[in-house]
Fold each of these.
Amino acid sequence: MSLSSFPHWRIVHSEASLGWGGQEHRVMAELLGFQRRGSSVRLVAHPDSQIMARARAAGLNTRPCTFDRRLLPFEILRMALWLRREKIEIVNTHSSRDGWLLGLAARLARVPMVLRTRHIDVVDRSPKISRHKFTTLADHTLTTSDKITRDIRSRYQLAASKVSTVPTGIDLDLFHQTGPTAELPVRSGPGAPPVIGMVSVLRSWKGHSTFFAAIQLLREAGREFQYVVVGGGAPVEVYAAKARSFGVEDRVKFTGQREDVADVLRALDVLCIPSTAHEGIPQIGLQALACGTSVVGSDCGGIPEIIREGESGRIFHAGDAAAMAERIAETVDQRERSAQMCRAGRAQVERQHSLDSMLDRLSEIYLQRLERTAAARSQSAQMASFTGGSLLKLAVKKKV
């Protein structure tokens, strides 16, 4: 399909986070994807954030903002003027602070469509106030999983037409079964034990403690596996100490953050996603399926929506280390069954979760919402014209 066949929009994404995880990956995927399709895209982010550095390195148009609460009124007005000057048609906010700042600025600037994306399943501390981020300051809400969509609709009493589930799309050319494998701090070659790994940001709710507890149980059962933890976001020493508390520090190798994620996934025999809270649809799960890597995941959030029990992977109850250990051993022992699941997982991602399918779905939402906004404004303008004309005639009549 040629670039001329895609609608071209002027789009702004905002992200107040300083870190680099699945949410920031998603923002970059949308920015770069729509830029490739011919849209004019911009990022508003903190000048010291990782996403700002990566966006600049990618040659994207960026605008720094500190999201300082003390400067909020000034920043809102400044941002509103910028949005009007740039003739922005779509604003998509991703975190709490930028949701308020860009949401208010977009309303002042009369941006045709304001979106709010909720990436993880969290409960806002002040629902009555937070509701405005999904109603007053947003025309439509996007989520990354059906579970988050259900929770958002229930929590804020939103109609089905106001919320859409759009999981993050995967680059199927990058995440593929064939390709190089990463060098990891493990033994390789014939006779080397299987490699079991976690690939995620180092956060408390990602389930590392469950992973370490499962390793302890597998060791006690005499299973000879190798284990790696890939990811940054917190000091590795903190998580090494957690491994030590379970007596498995000699079994687990920490690599820190890696950029060669596809190569890492192809080097693993089993990817584990033991999240205990907040999870939407984890991109690493889709990436692993695309790479043909076996996946064992918890039943947290949207994980079971993609790691379908007995079809594309294996599921255990979140926090249950014994069940996790059992599913890991089962995955390694039942090689042919696991290979079937890997093939089904790849086909599933190809059908439903490619990068292009995500961009196509977002384009549909943009078109629908912009058409409704244009119709509503046209009706409003006609009403204003009719009312103004009627008042003028009445004024003239009374004067006569």
Amino acid sequence: MAPKPPTDDELNTLIRARLAVLGIDLDQLPPGTVADPDTGAPGRDSALASLRSFMRTTVLPLAAYRFAADPALAQQVAPPLLYPSITTAWNKS
């Protein structure tokens, strides 16, 4: 059974929690969807809508991605080496 996509309220909770960890408080933005005319800051609702859209179109599909079982792709799964020339020299001995 495929997992159900998160609701707007669940995404709002996730977004606010992640931003709070970084020290960002969305309550500092003006309420509603209209940008502040003096500072140009977006409205709180429009900022949350934009972040929800980002989460749905970018983060969730990336999290659902799985590597193919093809052994030819196994070398692409390994993370890149910091100093490949040194590792190559070690492996030749």
